[in-house]
Amino acid sequence: MRCYIDRVTTNSDVVTDIKQLIPDAGMRRRMSRVIKMAVTTAVETLGGVENIAPLDAIITATGWGCLADSERFLRNVIVEREQLLNPTPFIQSTFNTVGGQIALLGHNHCYNVTYVNRSHSFEDALLDAMMRTTDGENRNILLGAFDEQTPSQHRIMERMGLYRCQNDGEGAVFAKVTAERTEQSIAQVTAIEFLTNSLTEEQCRERYTTDEKCAVLYNNYTKYGLYPTSSAQSFAQAVKMVCEGSTEVVIYNEYFGATPTLIKVQCIG
Amino acid sequence: MGIVVTGVGIVTALGVGLDKNLTSIKQGVSGISLSPQILGTSHTLPVGELPVTNEELHALAAIPASEHLSRTALLGILAVREALLDAGVDSSKRIGLVSSTSVGGMDLTEHFFEHFIADDSKGRLRDVRMHDCAASTEAIRRHCGINSYSTTISTACSSAANAVIMGAKLLKHNVVDCVVVGGSDALSAFTLNGFKSLMILDNEPCRPFDSSRAGLNLGEGAGYIVLQREEEAEEYYCHLAGYSNRNDAHHQTASSATGDGAYLAMSEALQMAGLAPSDVSYINAHGTGTGNNDASESAAFVRLFGDNIPLFSSTKAFTGHTLAAAGGVEAVLSVLAINRGILYPNLNFKSPIEEYGLQPLCHYKEGESVECVMTNSFGFGGNCSSLIFTR
């Protein structure tokens, strides 16, 4: 399996005015913080809303989904004793809201799916994208991952003791994925594996790299904070490393004892 | 490469297991009760609730109550176990799981949050550990002998149909030898109030495709099927011949009047199966009973099938709308439609929607020749998915 990457953007790379990225004022107003963060990152990646329509798949990933809206609606249910509730936070609490809003923004009728699988959400979405490009089913895919922090989520994870060794975090990463190499291609993904056993950094290097110049990002997601799709930030980092001259970057992630995953990003040669 | 269905498992308000579900449907007995008994809510609204408490579900699944699993996980475990037992899969094979849910562990989170909002040092952490969608998948993995790749999908009410699509892909790419696909969703005050705030819940038992329909009834349940590559299966129920996931791109919650997403999904699924619209023997419709869905789905039927609309019905008046599980529950019923020649009645139907004049099946039939079944699942976010099963 193989796919090519045209562009990767993280939420901190977004420079375009939100009014250009999400031109519909009504949509913009209703969107929560995470939806705005994810949709602006997505549209920035594509270089404008007009580039949503030609996509033939929109694949998103999120571990927590739209937490703030879920929490707001749940709080209202309890506080208002199930009476006279505003439906907007409920509507926008669904996990596929970001994928749906991107489709709506570009009037795009293509394949649209959301993976919600903890620390593997992004990897599962990437696997789906690679299977689809390999099958020839899709040629131009928008792939993305996002998660947001909220004060409640932070407090709960703090009470669980999860921030003792690691910082908190949130973010969005989107990539434009193609089946064939294009003039815009900047990197290629040549492997995604779900491993049965843990590997040490040395074992990763021995088994998966071709020469000493290859880089290994070993559990490097930790640097982006403790949230389910932080590994997508490592992926963005690997693509940027390839753009800056690395020939090959192997990403190994093992998040809290979950099945380890391995992604290989290579230069397009 | 052909993909076949080798096992089925189902839990709905009609009961735990395939036999209970099929018997109720045959007898015309709906699982919709006039108000929830187990779900904590002040609303008196009809729901398809399984009359079994979480403690009883732990006991049924032979899991100690101390594991404190969410209701979504418990329903899922019962259905996945039934499906795997039915398929008789050899445990030396790579057995994968693609599960789906829309509420995850919300039933437990609701308890937690009541205490937490008053004082953020309160609320038992064990009530919030299963909040995320993947927690139910992990519990199913652990308790059902899943030994290979697993993932979780959430695309609102089309979730389980998309799990079926991902499962087929995993088999084609040899990621797994066998994969359990479907979804599970428990009733929760969160979803009941959510749909109520959208004013799409009927105060009476729902009437899909009827001119007097006034909304849906929420349900709960789990439905899973086991998929394998045809050449590796000794016996099977039927083929998964086609599938499609398309987007309506019309509105975050409402379907387009022209049924664009539904039309595209049904057409593409048929095209993939290499079939013509006239080859469809029966459609298990999404048919929620809301004014909007049933009109939009009818419009899509007319666009695709013209004057020759196949036999169709919605089974949601039996089970309620089981949200992310609906595509799994209805995949199980569709598989049995082919295998036993069953045609399911659309309960509570009296008169057709004037604009379309479509008449769903109203009587139970068995032993019919059912060669090709289409099943539809549509959801928030414009998600529209169609699956095609053939003999």
Q: Could you tell me the radius of gyration of chain A in angstroms?
A: 19 Å
Proportion of beta-strand residues of chain A: 15-25%
Report the biggest beta sheet of chain A as strand number plus sense, adding barrel if it closes.
9 strands, mixed
Taking the alpha carbons of the first and last residues of chain B, their distance comes to: 15 Å
The CATH architecture category of the largest domain in chain A equals 3-Layer(aba) Sandwich
**Strand order of the main beta sheet of chain A, please?**
3-2-4-5-1-6-9-8-7
Binned, the helix content of chain B reads 25-40%
The CATH homologous superfamily of the largest domain in chain A corresponds to: Thiolase/Chalcone synthase
- Backbone shape of chain A: globular
Quaternary organisation of the protein chains: heterodimer
> How many strands in all of chain A?
9
Describe the structure.
The complex is a heterodimer of chains A (269) and B (391). Chain A is α/β, with parallel strands linked by helices. Chain A folds into 2 domains: 3-178, 3-Layer(aba) Sandwich (Peroxisomal Thiolase, Chain A, domain 1); 187-266. Chain A is 36% helix and 22% strand. Chain A contains 10 helices and 9 strands. Chain A has helices at residues 18-21, 25-30, 33-46, 67-79, 88-91, 97-106, 121-135, 151-159, 201-208, 231-243; strands spanning 3-10, 57-61, 111-115, 140-147, 171-178, 187-194, 215-218, 248-253, 261-266. In chain A, helix 10 (231-243) links the parallel strand 7 and strand 8. With 391 residues, chain B is an alpha/beta fold. Chain B has a single domain (3-390), classed as Thiolase/Chalcone synthase (Peroxisomal Thiolase, Chain A, domain 1, 3-Layer(aba) Sandwich). Helices cover 33% and strands 19% of the residues of chain B. Chain B has helices spanning 18-27, 54-60, 71-87, 106-116, 133-144, 159-172, 189-197, 260-273, 291-305, 316-319, 326-340, and strands at 3-12, 15-16, 32-33, 47-48, 95-100, 150-153, 178-185, 218-219, 221-229, 238-247, 282-284, 311-313, 372-378, 383-390. In chain B, strand 11, helix 9 and strand 12 (311-313) form a beta-alpha-beta unit. In chain B, helix 6 (159-172) packs across helix 11 (326-340). The longest helix of chain B has 17 residues, at 71-87. Chain B is globular and about 60 Å long. At the A-B interface, helix 4, helix 6, strand 3, helix 7 and helix 8 of A face helix 4, helix 5, strand 6, helix 6 and helix 7 of B.
